[in-house]
Design a protein that fits this description.
The structure holds two protein chains of two kinds. Chain A is an alpha+beta fold. In chain A, about 25% of the residues lie in helices and about 30% in strands. Chain A has two domains: about 5-45 and about 125-295, Glutamine Phosphoribosylpyrophosphate, subunit 1, domain 1 (4-Layer Sandwich), CATH 3.60.20; about 45-115, Ribosomal protein S6/Translation elongation factor EF1B (Alpha-Beta Plaits, 2-Layer Sandwich), CATH 3.30.70.60. The N and C termini of chain A lie far apart (about 35 Å). Chain B contains two helices and eleven strands. Chain B has a single domain (about 5-200, about 210-215), classed as Glutamate synthase, alpha subunit, C-terminal domain (Pectate Lyase C-like). Classes of the chains: A alpha+beta, B alpha/beta. The interface between A and B is medium-sized, with 15 and 18 residues.
Chain lengths: ~300, ~230
Amino acid sequence: MCGIVGLFLKNEALQPELGRLTGLMLHEMVGRGPDSAGFAIYETPVTATKISCLSLTGSTDWLALARQLTQAIEAPVDVHEIEDHAILHTTGDGALARNRIIEVAPDVTVLSVGHAIELYKGIGDPDAIATRFGLAQRAGRHAIAHTRMATESAVVIAGSHPFSTGADTCLVHNGSLSNHNRLRQSLRRRGETFQTENDSEVAAGYLAWRMREGDSLEAAIERALHDLDGFYTLAIGTRDGFAVVRDAIACKPAIIAETEDWVAMSSEFRAIARLPGVANADIWEPKPATVYAWSHAA
Amino acid sequence: MTTKPIDLDSAFLSLREVNAALQAATSGAFRVLNPGGEHALACGLDAAIEVTIDGHAGYYCGGMNKHASITVSGNAGTGCAENIMSGAVRVRGDVSQSLAATGHGGLVVVEGSASARAGISMKGVDIVVGGDVGHMSAFMAQAGHLVVLGDAGTDLGDSIYEAEIFVRGAVASLGADCEEKPLDEEHKAVLDLLLQRAGFNVDPAAFRRYGSARRLYHFSVDHMGEY
Protein backbone atom coordinates (compact mmCIF):
# COMPACT_ATOMS: atom_id res chain seq x y z
CA MET A 1 0.00 0.00 0.00
CA CYS A 2 1.38 3.47 0.95
CA GLY A 3 -0.10 6.86 0.16
CA ILE A 4 1.60 9.69 -1.62
CA VAL A 5 0.63 13.30 -2.08
CA GLY A 6 2.17 16.29 -3.79
CA LEU A 7 1.07 19.91 -3.98
CA PHE A 8 2.57 22.50 -6.33
CA LEU A 9 1.34 26.07 -5.90
CA LYS A 10 0.96 28.19 -9.01
CA ASN A 11 -0.61 31.12 -7.15
CA GLU A 12 1.92 32.83 -4.85
CA ALA A 13 -0.88 34.07 -2.59
CA LEU A 14 -1.43 30.47 -1.45
CA GLN A 15 2.17 29.99 -0.27
CA PRO A 16 1.41 30.64 3.42
CA GLU A 17 -1.17 27.81 3.16
CA LEU A 18 1.16 25.17 1.68
CA GLY A 19 1.78 23.27 4.91
CA ARG A 20 -1.85 23.35 6.03
CA LEU A 21 -3.12 22.07 2.67
CA THR A 22 -0.43 19.40 2.49
CA GLY A 23 -1.42 18.30 6.00
CA LEU A 24 -5.07 17.95 4.92
CA MET A 25 -3.98 15.76 2.02
CA LEU A 26 -1.63 13.70 4.19
CA HIS A 27 -4.43 13.09 6.70
CA GLU A 28 -6.60 11.45 4.03
CA MET A 29 -3.78 9.03 3.19
CA VAL A 30 -3.35 7.75 6.77
CA GLY A 31 -5.46 4.69 5.94
CA ARG A 32 -3.08 3.77 3.14
CA GLY A 33 -0.04 4.12 5.37
CA PRO A 34 -0.48 4.23 9.14
CA ASP A 35 3.07 3.12 10.05
CA SER A 36 5.27 6.06 9.17
CA ALA A 37 5.23 9.34 7.32
CA GLY A 38 7.41 12.11 6.03
CA PHE A 39 7.23 15.30 4.06
CA ALA A 40 9.46 17.66 2.11
CA ILE A 41 8.69 21.37 2.02
CA TYR A 42 10.21 23.51 -0.71
CA GLU A 43 10.51 27.19 0.16
CA THR A 44 11.75 29.95 -2.11
CA PRO A 45 15.47 29.10 -2.57
CA VAL A 46 17.82 30.89 -0.17
CA THR A 47 21.54 31.67 -0.54
CA ALA A 48 22.58 29.38 2.29
CA THR A 49 22.49 25.59 1.98
CA LYS A 50 20.03 23.84 4.28
CA ILE A 51 20.90 20.34 5.46
CA SER A 52 18.03 18.39 7.04
CA CYS A 53 19.32 15.83 9.53
CA LEU A 54 17.70 13.15 11.66
CA SER A 55 19.18 11.82 14.88
CA LEU A 56 18.69 8.04 15.07
CA THR A 57 19.41 8.05 18.81
CA GLY A 58 17.51 11.23 19.64
CA SER A 59 20.53 12.41 21.64
CA THR A 60 22.86 13.78 18.98
CA ASP A 61 24.99 16.73 20.09
CA TRP A 62 24.15 19.00 17.14
CA LEU A 63 26.36 21.86 18.28
CA ALA A 64 29.37 19.57 18.50
CA LEU A 65 28.57 18.22 15.04
CA ALA A 66 28.23 21.77 13.70
CA ARG A 67 31.66 22.66 15.14
CA GLN A 68 33.21 19.61 13.44
CA LEU A 69 31.56 20.54 10.15
CA THR A 70 32.66 24.16 10.37
CA GLN A 71 36.24 22.96 10.50
CA ALA A 72 35.77 20.42 7.72
CA ILE A 73 34.08 22.68 5.21
CA GLU A 74 35.68 25.92 6.40
CA ALA A 75 32.37 27.77 6.69
CA PRO A 76 30.06 28.60 9.59
CA VAL A 77 27.22 26.14 10.32
CA ASP A 78 24.07 27.19 12.22
CA VAL A 79 21.79 24.68 13.92
CA HIS A 80 17.97 24.82 14.06
CA GLU A 81 16.84 21.91 16.20
CA ILE A 82 13.29 20.53 15.84
CA GLU A 83 12.45 17.43 17.88
CA ASP A 84 14.83 14.67 16.72
CA HIS A 85 15.70 16.64 13.58
CA ALA A 86 18.10 19.51 12.96
CA ILE A 87 18.24 21.82 9.98
CA LEU A 88 21.82 22.99 9.51
CA HIS A 89 22.38 26.22 7.60
CA THR A 90 25.72 26.97 5.96
CA THR A 91 27.23 29.07 3.21
CA GLY A 92 29.79 26.29 2.67
CA ASP A 93 29.71 23.32 0.31
CA GLY A 94 26.54 21.31 1.04
CA ALA A 95 27.62 18.12 -0.71
CA LEU A 96 30.91 18.13 1.19
CA ALA A 97 29.05 18.69 4.45
CA ARG A 98 26.67 15.80 3.70
CA ASN A 99 29.53 13.39 3.06
CA ARG A 100 31.33 14.59 6.18
CA ILE A 101 28.27 14.01 8.39
CA ILE A 102 27.76 10.50 6.98
CA GLU A 103 31.44 9.81 7.67
CA VAL A 104 31.73 11.13 11.24
CA ALA A 105 28.21 10.77 12.68
CA PRO A 106 26.83 7.21 12.43
CA ASP A 107 23.86 8.25 14.63
CA VAL A 108 22.74 10.85 12.05
CA THR A 109 20.92 10.36 8.75
CA VAL A 110 21.20 13.21 6.29
CA LEU A 111 17.70 13.59 4.89
CA SER A 112 18.25 16.35 2.35
CA VAL A 113 20.63 19.04 1.17
CA GLY A 114 19.65 22.09 -0.83
CA HIS A 115 18.71 25.74 -1.03
CA ALA A 116 14.94 25.18 -1.03
CA ILE A 117 14.19 21.78 0.54
CA GLU A 118 13.58 20.83 4.17
CA LEU A 119 12.71 17.23 4.89
CA TYR A 120 11.15 15.61 7.96
CA LYS A 121 10.15 12.01 8.68
CA GLY A 122 9.18 9.75 11.51
CA ILE A 123 7.50 6.50 12.46
CA GLY A 124 4.01 6.22 13.91
CA ASP A 125 0.75 8.05 13.20
CA PRO A 126 1.21 10.38 10.19
CA ASP A 127 -1.03 13.08 11.70
CA ALA A 128 1.07 13.08 14.88
CA ILE A 129 4.25 13.38 12.82
CA ALA A 130 2.79 16.35 10.91
CA THR A 131 1.86 18.01 14.21
CA ARG A 132 5.25 17.29 15.77
CA PHE A 133 7.08 19.11 12.98
CA GLY A 134 4.54 21.93 12.60
CA LEU A 135 3.61 21.07 9.03
CA ALA A 136 0.40 23.14 9.11
CA GLN A 137 2.34 26.33 9.91
CA ARG A 138 4.84 25.91 7.07
CA ALA A 139 4.84 28.16 4.02
CA GLY A 140 6.43 27.28 0.71
CA ARG A 141 6.09 26.76 -3.02
CA HIS A 142 5.61 23.00 -3.29
CA ALA A 143 5.58 19.93 -1.06
CA ILE A 144 5.47 16.17 -1.31
CA ALA A 145 4.55 13.74 1.44
CA HIS A 146 4.18 10.03 2.07
CA THR A 147 2.38 7.68 4.41
CA ARG A 148 3.89 4.22 4.66
CA MET A 149 2.39 0.79 5.18
CA ALA A 150 5.43 -1.42 5.59
CA THR A 151 5.07 -4.63 3.59
CA GLU A 152 8.58 -5.80 2.77
CA SER A 153 10.67 -4.45 5.62
CA ALA A 154 10.26 -3.47 9.24
CA VAL A 155 8.68 -0.26 10.49
CA VAL A 156 11.94 1.62 10.91
CA ILE A 157 12.73 5.22 10.19
CA ALA A 158 15.13 4.13 7.44
CA GLY A 159 12.09 3.02 5.46
CA SER A 160 10.22 6.31 5.81
CA HIS A 161 9.92 8.52 2.74
CA PRO A 162 10.69 10.99 1.15
CA PHE A 163 14.17 10.05 -0.01
CA SER A 164 16.69 12.57 -1.21
CA THR A 165 20.24 12.04 -2.29
CA GLY A 166 20.98 14.99 -4.56
CA ALA A 167 20.70 18.72 -4.02
CA ASP A 168 17.06 19.77 -3.63
CA THR A 169 15.82 16.50 -5.16
CA CYS A 170 13.54 14.10 -3.36
CA LEU A 171 10.88 11.57 -4.16
CA VAL A 172 8.08 9.59 -2.63
CA HIS A 173 7.29 6.15 -3.99
CA ASN A 174 4.31 3.82 -3.92
CA GLY A 175 5.36 0.40 -5.16
CA SER A 176 8.48 -1.73 -5.14
CA LEU A 177 11.60 -1.96 -7.29
CA SER A 178 13.03 -5.35 -8.20
CA ASN A 179 16.45 -4.31 -9.53
CA HIS A 180 17.45 -1.95 -6.73
CA ASN A 181 20.41 -3.98 -5.45
CA ARG A 182 22.25 -4.05 -8.76
CA LEU A 183 21.32 -0.44 -9.47
CA ARG A 184 22.61 0.64 -6.04
CA GLN A 185 25.96 -1.07 -6.76
CA SER A 186 26.30 0.63 -10.10
CA LEU A 187 25.32 4.03 -8.65
CA ARG A 188 27.85 3.62 -5.82
CA ARG A 189 30.54 3.13 -8.44
CA ARG A 190 29.40 6.42 -9.95
CA GLY A 191 29.87 8.21 -6.66
CA GLU A 192 26.38 8.13 -5.07
CA THR A 193 26.25 7.44 -1.33
CA PHE A 194 23.31 5.56 0.15
CA GLN A 195 22.27 5.47 3.80
CA THR A 196 19.69 2.66 3.75
CA GLU A 197 18.93 -0.63 1.99
CA ASN A 198 15.60 0.78 0.80
CA ASP A 199 14.61 0.40 -2.86
CA SER A 200 13.07 3.88 -3.06
CA GLU A 201 16.32 5.53 -2.00
CA VAL A 202 17.91 3.94 -5.08
CA ALA A 203 15.32 5.60 -7.32
CA ALA A 204 16.12 8.95 -5.68
CA GLY A 205 19.85 8.33 -6.13
CA TYR A 206 19.33 7.38 -9.76
CA LEU A 207 17.56 10.67 -10.54
CA ALA A 208 20.15 12.68 -8.62
CA TRP A 209 22.92 10.99 -10.63
CA ARG A 210 21.21 11.68 -13.96
CA MET A 211 20.62 15.32 -13.14
CA ARG A 212 24.21 15.73 -11.98
CA GLU A 213 25.21 14.35 -15.39
CA GLY A 214 23.24 17.17 -16.98
CA ASP A 215 19.83 15.60 -17.65
CA SER A 216 16.78 17.79 -17.11
CA LEU A 217 14.25 16.39 -14.61
CA GLU A 218 12.09 15.16 -17.51
CA ALA A 219 15.04 13.53 -19.29
CA ALA A 220 16.17 11.86 -16.05
CA ILE A 221 12.69 10.43 -15.49
CA GLU A 222 12.43 9.24 -19.12
CA ARG A 223 15.66 7.32 -18.59
CA ALA A 224 14.42 6.01 -15.22
CA LEU A 225 11.41 4.49 -17.01
CA HIS A 226 13.91 2.35 -18.88
CA ASP A 227 16.26 1.53 -16.00
CA LEU A 228 13.94 1.10 -12.99
CA ASP A 229 12.35 -2.34 -12.97
CA GLY A 230 9.31 -2.77 -10.78
CA PHE A 231 6.06 -1.14 -9.77
CA TYR A 232 6.00 2.51 -9.04
CA THR A 233 4.10 5.71 -8.89
CA LEU A 234 6.62 8.43 -8.05
CA ALA A 235 6.12 12.04 -7.04
CA ILE A 236 9.35 13.96 -7.39
CA GLY A 237 10.29 17.36 -6.03
CA THR A 238 13.15 19.52 -7.26
CA ARG A 239 14.26 23.07 -6.41
CA ASP A 240 11.79 24.62 -8.86
CA GLY A 241 9.52 21.82 -9.82
CA PHE A 242 7.39 18.82 -9.27
CA ALA A 243 6.83 15.74 -11.41
CA VAL A 244 4.75 12.57 -11.43
CA VAL A 245 5.43 9.31 -13.24
CA ARG A 246 3.99 5.78 -13.21
CA ASP A 247 5.59 2.62 -14.56
CA ALA A 248 4.37 1.08 -17.81
CA ILE A 249 1.95 -1.33 -16.09
CA ALA A 250 0.55 1.35 -13.78
CA CYS A 251 -0.87 -0.90 -11.05
CA LYS A 252 -0.15 1.69 -8.39
CA PRO A 253 -2.84 4.35 -8.27
CA ALA A 254 -2.39 8.04 -8.99
CA ILE A 255 -4.64 10.98 -9.69
CA ILE A 256 -3.76 14.53 -10.66
CA ALA A 257 -5.89 17.65 -10.34
CA GLU A 258 -5.06 21.10 -11.66
CA THR A 259 -6.62 24.54 -11.22
CA GLU A 260 -5.37 28.05 -12.00
CA ASP A 261 -3.92 28.11 -8.49
CA TRP A 262 -2.36 24.69 -7.92
CA VAL A 263 -1.48 21.22 -9.16
CA ALA A 264 -2.10 18.34 -6.76
CA MET A 265 -1.36 14.64 -7.07
CA SER A 266 -2.27 11.82 -4.79
CA SER A 267 -2.81 8.08 -4.59
CA GLU A 268 -6.54 8.71 -4.26
CA PHE A 269 -8.97 11.49 -5.06
CA ARG A 270 -10.13 11.89 -1.47
CA ALA A 271 -6.77 13.52 -0.60
CA ILE A 272 -7.51 16.18 -3.20
CA ALA A 273 -11.19 16.55 -2.32
CA ARG A 274 -10.64 19.20 0.34
CA LEU A 275 -8.42 21.59 -1.61
CA PRO A 276 -9.88 25.03 -2.38
CA GLY A 277 -11.51 25.26 -5.80
CA VAL A 278 -11.43 21.51 -6.41
CA ALA A 279 -14.95 21.58 -7.84
CA ASN A 280 -13.59 23.37 -10.92
CA ALA A 281 -10.33 21.41 -11.21
CA ASP A 282 -9.26 19.40 -14.25
CA ILE A 283 -8.90 15.90 -12.86
CA TRP A 284 -7.22 13.01 -14.61
CA GLU A 285 -5.37 9.79 -14.03
CA PRO A 286 -1.75 9.95 -15.25
CA LYS A 287 -1.09 7.57 -18.12
CA PRO A 288 1.46 4.75 -17.79
CA ALA A 289 5.10 5.58 -18.61
CA THR A 290 4.30 9.25 -19.16
CA VAL A 291 6.10 12.11 -17.42
CA TYR A 292 4.02 14.97 -16.01
CA ALA A 293 6.05 17.95 -14.79
CA TRP A 294 5.53 21.51 -13.61
CA SER A 295 8.08 24.21 -12.80
CA HIS A 296 7.99 27.60 -11.09
CA ALA A 297 10.84 28.73 -13.36
CA ALA A 298 9.73 30.97 -16.22
CA MET B 1 -43.83 9.80 -11.32
CA THR B 2 -41.55 12.43 -9.88
CA THR B 3 -40.70 12.09 -6.24
CA LYS B 4 -38.17 14.31 -4.59
CA PRO B 5 -35.05 12.28 -3.78
CA ILE B 6 -34.01 11.74 -0.19
CA ASP B 7 -30.68 13.45 0.54
CA LEU B 8 -27.93 11.67 2.42
CA ASP B 9 -25.16 14.17 3.19
CA SER B 10 -21.71 12.71 3.73
CA ALA B 11 -20.72 15.93 5.43
CA PHE B 12 -22.93 14.83 8.35
CA LEU B 13 -23.30 11.06 7.95
CA SER B 14 -20.58 8.44 8.10
CA LEU B 15 -19.99 6.21 5.09
CA ARG B 16 -21.55 3.32 7.00
CA GLU B 17 -24.67 5.33 7.77
CA VAL B 18 -25.03 6.32 4.11
CA ASN B 19 -24.59 2.75 2.90
CA ALA B 20 -26.85 1.30 5.60
CA ALA B 21 -29.66 3.69 4.58
CA LEU B 22 -29.27 2.77 0.92
CA GLN B 23 -29.08 -0.97 1.64
CA ALA B 24 -32.21 -0.83 3.80
CA ALA B 25 -34.30 0.93 1.13
CA THR B 26 -36.67 -1.09 -1.03
CA SER B 27 -37.86 1.74 -3.29
CA GLY B 28 -37.43 5.44 -3.96
CA ALA B 29 -34.71 7.82 -5.08
CA PHE B 30 -31.70 8.96 -3.07
CA ARG B 31 -28.98 11.54 -3.46
CA VAL B 32 -25.59 11.27 -1.77
CA LEU B 33 -24.21 14.77 -1.23
CA ASN B 34 -20.54 15.65 -0.55
CA PRO B 35 -19.22 12.16 -1.37
CA GLY B 36 -15.64 13.52 -1.24
CA GLY B 37 -14.10 10.50 -2.98
CA GLU B 38 -15.13 8.08 -0.21
CA HIS B 39 -14.63 4.39 -1.00
CA ALA B 40 -17.31 1.70 -1.33
CA LEU B 41 -20.20 4.14 -1.78
CA ALA B 42 -23.55 2.51 -2.61
CA CYS B 43 -22.11 -0.99 -2.46
CA GLY B 44 -24.14 -4.17 -2.14
CA LEU B 45 -27.50 -2.66 -3.06
CA ASP B 46 -30.24 -5.24 -3.67
CA ALA B 47 -33.41 -3.32 -4.60
CA ALA B 48 -34.68 -1.30 -7.54
CA ILE B 49 -33.87 2.10 -6.06
CA GLU B 50 -32.31 5.12 -7.77
CA VAL B 51 -29.12 6.58 -6.32
CA THR B 52 -27.33 9.70 -7.48
CA ILE B 53 -23.85 10.35 -6.11
CA ASP B 54 -23.47 14.09 -6.40
CA GLY B 55 -19.71 14.42 -6.89
CA HIS B 56 -16.66 12.18 -7.12
CA ALA B 57 -16.59 8.64 -5.73
CA GLY B 58 -13.58 6.62 -4.53
CA TYR B 59 -12.87 2.91 -5.01
CA TYR B 60 -15.46 0.17 -5.64
CA CYS B 61 -18.45 2.48 -6.02
CA GLY B 62 -21.62 0.51 -6.76
CA GLY B 63 -19.82 -2.78 -6.20
CA MET B 64 -21.90 -6.01 -6.28
CA ASN B 65 -24.94 -4.03 -7.39
CA LYS B 66 -28.26 -5.85 -7.91
CA HIS B 67 -31.36 -4.14 -9.33
CA ALA B 68 -30.41 -0.59 -8.28
CA SER B 69 -29.70 2.22 -10.72
CA ILE B 70 -26.70 4.30 -9.62
CA THR B 71 -25.44 7.51 -11.22
CA VAL B 72 -22.18 9.23 -10.27
CA SER B 73 -22.18 12.84 -11.41
CA GLY B 74 -18.38 13.15 -11.18
CA ASN B 75 -15.50 10.67 -11.51
CA ALA B 76 -15.16 7.26 -9.87
CA GLY B 77 -12.01 5.46 -8.70
CA THR B 78 -10.69 1.93 -9.05
CA GLY B 79 -13.13 -0.96 -9.39
CA CYS B 80 -16.32 0.99 -10.09
CA ALA B 81 -19.29 -1.44 -10.39
CA GLU B 82 -17.01 -4.32 -9.47
CA ASN B 83 -18.84 -7.65 -9.68
CA ILE B 84 -22.12 -6.00 -10.68
CA MET B 85 -24.93 -8.59 -10.95
CA SER B 86 -27.78 -6.54 -12.43
CA GLY B 87 -29.18 -3.01 -12.51
CA ALA B 88 -27.17 -0.11 -13.87
CA VAL B 89 -24.24 2.10 -12.95
CA ARG B 90 -23.61 5.31 -14.89
CA VAL B 91 -20.62 7.60 -14.37
CA ARG B 92 -20.78 11.03 -15.98
CA GLY B 93 -17.05 11.70 -15.61
CA ASP B 94 -14.07 9.35 -15.92
CA VAL B 95 -13.30 6.14 -14.05
CA SER B 96 -10.04 4.62 -12.88
CA GLN B 97 -8.86 1.09 -13.52
CA SER B 98 -10.69 -2.25 -13.34
CA LEU B 99 -14.12 -0.91 -14.32
CA ALA B 100 -16.87 -3.51 -13.73
CA ALA B 101 -14.26 -6.18 -12.99
CA THR B 102 -15.80 -9.68 -12.94
CA GLY B 103 -19.26 -8.16 -13.56
CA HIS B 104 -21.94 -10.83 -14.13
CA GLY B 105 -24.78 -8.73 -15.51
CA GLY B 106 -26.39 -5.31 -15.70
CA LEU B 107 -25.30 -2.24 -17.63
CA VAL B 108 -22.31 -0.02 -16.83
CA VAL B 109 -22.00 3.27 -18.72
CA VAL B 110 -19.08 5.70 -18.46
CA GLU B 111 -19.64 8.97 -20.29
CA GLY B 112 -15.96 9.93 -19.99
CA SER B 113 -13.01 7.57 -20.25
CA ALA B 114 -11.95 4.48 -18.32
CA SER B 115 -8.33 3.65 -17.56
CA ALA B 116 -6.52 0.30 -17.50
CA ARG B 117 -8.17 -3.11 -17.34
CA ALA B 118 -11.75 -1.99 -18.00
CA GLY B 119 -13.94 -5.10 -18.01
CA ILE B 120 -11.21 -7.37 -16.68
CA SER B 121 -12.60 -10.90 -16.28
CA MET B 122 -16.13 -9.69 -17.13
CA LYS B 123 -18.68 -12.50 -16.94
CA GLY B 124 -21.79 -11.14 -18.63
CA VAL B 125 -21.96 -7.43 -17.84
CA ASP B 126 -22.49 -4.94 -20.67
CA ILE B 127 -20.08 -1.98 -20.55
CA VAL B 128 -20.34 1.12 -22.71
CA VAL B 129 -17.58 3.75 -22.50
CA GLY B 130 -18.10 7.10 -24.23
CA GLY B 131 -14.39 7.97 -24.30
CA ASP B 132 -11.29 5.78 -24.30
CA VAL B 133 -10.26 2.67 -22.35
CA GLY B 134 -6.73 2.02 -21.06
CA HIS B 135 -4.35 -0.86 -21.57
CA MET B 136 -5.29 -4.51 -20.95
CA SER B 137 -9.00 -3.83 -21.17
CA ALA B 138 -11.27 -6.91 -21.37
CA PHE B 139 -8.37 -9.05 -20.10
CA MET B 140 -9.66 -12.66 -19.80
CA ALA B 141 -13.17 -11.40 -20.50
CA GLN B 142 -15.55 -14.34 -20.42
CA ALA B 143 -19.00 -13.05 -21.42
CA GLY B 144 -20.84 -9.80 -22.04
CA HIS B 145 -20.02 -6.79 -24.23
CA LEU B 146 -17.46 -4.00 -24.01
CA VAL B 147 -18.32 -1.04 -26.25
CA VAL B 148 -15.79 1.77 -26.63
CA LEU B 149 -16.70 4.93 -28.53
CA GLY B 150 -13.15 6.28 -28.37
CA ASP B 151 -9.79 4.50 -28.53
CA ALA B 152 -8.48 1.41 -26.74
CA GLY B 153 -5.00 1.09 -25.17
CA THR B 154 -2.47 -1.67 -25.72
CA ASP B 155 -3.22 -5.40 -25.37
CA LEU B 156 -6.98 -5.15 -25.80
CA GLY B 157 -8.78 -8.42 -25.09
CA ASP B 158 -5.72 -10.38 -24.00
CA SER B 159 -6.66 -14.05 -23.38
CA ILE B 160 -10.31 -13.27 -24.04
CA TYR B 161 -12.95 -16.03 -23.92
CA GLU B 162 -16.45 -15.42 -25.31
CA ALA B 163 -17.02 -11.75 -24.53
CA GLU B 164 -17.38 -9.36 -27.48
CA ILE B 165 -15.61 -6.03 -27.91
CA PHE B 166 -16.71 -3.16 -30.15
CA VAL B 167 -14.36 -0.19 -30.65
CA ARG B 168 -15.11 2.88 -32.77
CA GLY B 169 -11.67 4.53 -32.50
CA ALA B 170 -8.12 3.24 -32.76
CA VAL B 171 -6.87 0.13 -30.99
CA ALA B 172 -3.23 0.57 -29.86
CA SER B 173 -2.68 -3.19 -30.02
CA LEU B 174 -4.54 -6.45 -29.52
CA GLY B 175 -3.55 -8.82 -26.72
CA ALA B 176 -2.74 -12.51 -27.05
CA ASP B 177 -5.42 -14.46 -28.93
CA CYS B 178 -7.65 -11.46 -29.60
CA GLU B 179 -8.51 -10.76 -33.24
CA GLU B 180 -10.75 -8.55 -35.32
CA LYS B 181 -13.94 -10.24 -36.54
CA PRO B 182 -16.53 -9.27 -39.15
CA LEU B 183 -19.26 -6.85 -38.07
CA ASP B 184 -22.36 -8.46 -39.53
CA GLU B 185 -25.97 -7.28 -39.32
CA GLU B 186 -26.67 -9.44 -36.26
CA HIS B 187 -23.72 -7.81 -34.44
CA LYS B 188 -24.82 -4.32 -35.49
CA ALA B 189 -28.27 -5.06 -34.06
CA VAL B 190 -26.77 -6.12 -30.72
CA LEU B 191 -24.51 -3.06 -30.71
CA ASP B 192 -27.34 -0.72 -31.68
CA LEU B 193 -29.41 -1.90 -28.74
CA LEU B 194 -26.48 -1.45 -26.34
CA LEU B 195 -25.82 2.07 -27.61
CA GLN B 196 -29.50 2.97 -27.25
CA ARG B 197 -29.63 1.59 -23.70
CA ALA B 198 -26.51 3.60 -22.87
CA GLY B 199 -27.98 6.77 -24.42
CA PHE B 200 -25.39 7.25 -27.18
CA ASN B 201 -26.74 8.28 -30.55
CA VAL B 202 -23.96 6.94 -32.80
CA ASP B 203 -23.85 4.70 -35.88
CA PRO B 204 -23.09 1.02 -35.10
CA ALA B 205 -21.52 0.65 -38.53
CA ALA B 206 -18.63 2.90 -37.40
CA PHE B 207 -17.36 0.21 -34.99
CA ARG B 208 -15.01 -2.74 -35.40
CA ARG B 209 -15.64 -6.02 -33.61
CA TYR B 210 -13.03 -8.03 -31.71
CA GLY B 211 -13.11 -11.39 -29.98
CA SER B 212 -11.27 -14.61 -29.24
CA ALA B 213 -9.25 -16.29 -31.99
CA ARG B 214 -9.49 -19.50 -29.91
CA ARG B 215 -5.89 -20.39 -30.60
CA LEU B 216 -4.48 -20.36 -27.08
CA TYR B 217 -3.02 -23.57 -25.67
CA HIS B 218 -6.20 -24.79 -23.96
CA PHE B 219 -8.30 -24.26 -27.11
CA SER B 220 -6.14 -26.69 -29.15
CA VAL B 221 -7.38 -30.26 -29.59
CA ASP B 222 -3.73 -31.35 -29.77
CA HIS B 223 -3.48 -30.74 -26.03
CA MET B 224 -6.55 -32.80 -25.09
CA GLY B 225 -4.29 -35.57 -23.78
CA GLU B 226 -2.81 -33.23 -21.22
CA TYR B 227 -6.08 -32.98 -19.30
